[in-house]
Structure formats: structure tokens, C-alpha cells
Amino acid sequence: MTDVSTTIAGVKFPSCFMNAAGALCVTREELVSLGQSQAGGIVTKSMTIEARQGNPEPRYYGFPGGSINSMGLPNLGYRAYAEMIPELKRFGKPVVASVSGLCEEDFPVIAAAINAAQPDLIEVNLSCPNIPGKPQIGYDPEASERIIKRVRPLITVPMGLKLPPYFDPAHHAVMGEVIGRCGVDFLNMINSVGNGLVVDPEREAVVIKPKGGFGGLGGKIIKPVALANVRAFYKFFEGKIPIIGTGGVVDGVDAFEHFLCGASAVQVGTVLVEEGLEVFGRLETELTEILKNKGYRSIEDFRGAVKEL
Ligand code: IRO
What we know:
By secondary structure, this protein is an alpha/beta fold. It has helices spanning about 30-35, 80-90, 105-115, 140-150, 170-180, 225-235, 250-260, 270-275, 280-295, and strands spanning about 5-10, 10-15, 15-20, 40-45, 60-65, 65-70, 95-100, 120-125, 160-165, 185-190, 195, 200, 205, 215-220, 245, 265-270. Helix 2 (about 80-90) runs parallel beside helix 3 (about 105-115), helix 4 packs parallel to helix 5 (about 170-180) and helix 7 crosses helix 9 (about 280-295). The radius of gyration is 18 Å and the shape is globular. The relative contact order is 0.17. It binds ligand IRO. Ligand IRO binds near residues 127, 129 and 192.
């Protein structure tokens, strides 16, 4: 029997595929639909203190090979998600609450209240690229360390970080040191590749409205960046911190590559938005087929085992 379940920080997921924070997970209806789907977990939209409408539209654009977004943290506010968590937990799969904030002080407030609602895991988003005037926290190691150290004592469920992509080994090392000092139970990488620009040559215009068209890139085009980050942190921590690989997973082969690089689960954003909830069944079937053909029984049989030349 081929087994595509996985375990992250001691929490068992019936399938290794789940939604990435932000993708079809803002409203109660969307979260319930994820619960009813074949997704292995339910990940909430990153939440702020107050509900937000987000940035002006158009703010998402899909194109062959990927997507660009500048949603601007549209969400219901942490109180609404805290209330929903007990109901969402009844679907028999882990609930991952994604905690964000508009300033450092917001993070502990939300972390404490969401922890009281006892999701199965909490993911602290240090990497939203789309709030005008606010840089991605994950690119500031000191600010990242301050925030992680403030929320860490407030969280009793497994706590992870959603990281932005890093593009230099020196940056992997600096963040690796920060993470090592703070005691983090899992990592999720990568968030969208921030501040890309997509241009429509027909209209001679950018494709989304906020920030002059700049936004976070996702989908197939970012897979090599995602794999590099998964691999770099897997090696930095010698496989001891579980990693959720996010970025560029469109089919079973993409997921297989993430696992080879060291991921223990994968999340899907762009392909979920483009294809809908049916994507989870397709991905599971495709990965199962690959594992069967290669004679692997589970992800653990080959996780992190990519060959170097
Ligand atoms: O614009 C968003 O809401 C958004 C967030 I918070 C994030 O973490 N990543 C992303 O691509 N978009």
C-alpha cells in the first residue's frame, strides 16, 4: 500500500497536500470546503487584529506558468478565526492557523488568542510582501527574532514560520541562526516571490492595481527558488526541523521533487486558485503513481535523499 500521509512536528496529516495560506481560505465557507475536500489539512488565511478588505482590485492575475498577487491581507480578523477553529477541527484533519500582523505588537495579541482556540499548529507569517510601505519581516533578521521570541512563549501547539524566499546562502545562514536560537517546531517556505512585475503587452499595462503592479509571484515559475530554500534549510538543520514545501507545486512530480529536497508536506496556492478543490485528488493520484512506480511506500522512504553530483 502506498501511503501519502505525513507528520509535521508530531501532528499527523492524512495527506501531504494542503492549501497554502491565502488560497481559498479566507471565509468560513471556504475553510469548511477545504475540510470537506481531500486536502490533508486546513490552513487559514493569515489574520490580522481587525478584519480587512485588502488592497484594491484587480489584485490577483493568473498567467501561463504562474500568478501575481497583491491581496493586501484581506481577512476576517483573528476573533472570527478563533471562533471557527473548534468547528474546523471536526473534519478530522489538522487546522493550521496563520498569524500575521500589521506591526510587531499585533503578533503576540493574535498568537495568544489563537493559541487559546487550540488549532493543531500555528504558522507565523513573516513574509507578506504586499502591504504598501511595510517590508517583509523575514528579510530583517533582528525584527524576525524579536517577533519569534515574543510569540514563542505564548504558543503551546507546534509553532512554525512562513518564510520568504532567500537568494543567497549567507541569508539562509543568518536566518538559520535566528531560527536555531528561537526554537521553532516547523518551517514553511516559500511565500510568494515578492515584488515581481507582470506586464500585458497587448494592453501595454501592468496586470494588478496595487503598488503600481508589483506583487508576489507564485506557481510553476517559482519552483526552483522554492526547492532551493527547502534544500538549504533542510541541510542547515540536518533534517531536524520539519519543512512544509510551498512554491511551484502544480503536479505530482513537483511534490516529489519537494520531498526529495527535504519537505515533509507541500502546500498549493496558484494551482488551487486556478483549478479548485479537485486539485487535491489529482495531486494525490499523481504522487501515488510515482511512488508505486519507484517502489516507495511512503514519503519517508526518500525524503531529503536528492542526489548531489
Ligand atoms: O497579499 C496578501 O494577502 C499576501 C500575503 I498576507 C502573503 O503572505 N503572501 C502573499 O503572496 N500575499
